[in-house]
Amino acid sequence: MNLYSTLNRRSGFSTNRMPSLFKALAVLRQRRALARLDNAALADLGLTRADVSRELKRPIWDVPSNWRG
Predict the structure, then answer these.
(1) Residues ≥6 apart with Cβ < 8 Å to 42
(2) What is the pTM of this model?
(3) Are 7 and 13 in contact (CB under 8 A)?
(4) Residue with the larger pLDDT of the pair 69 and 5
């Protein structure tokens, strides 16, 4: 059983909002992880510190279109 189904069954959270919340939290975690990478790891990904800085300044709801709805 995953957290989503547990929250849905036990606490009555609305199921239509939870996926959006989980996606927003995933974006936050991924952006924080990106910020922790060293320059060598960023170079392996083809990114620069400037790219990372731009990504970190984006609002949490600004995600790839395939993540939406």
Answers:
(1) 48, 49, 51, 52
(2) 0.65
(3) yes
(4) 69
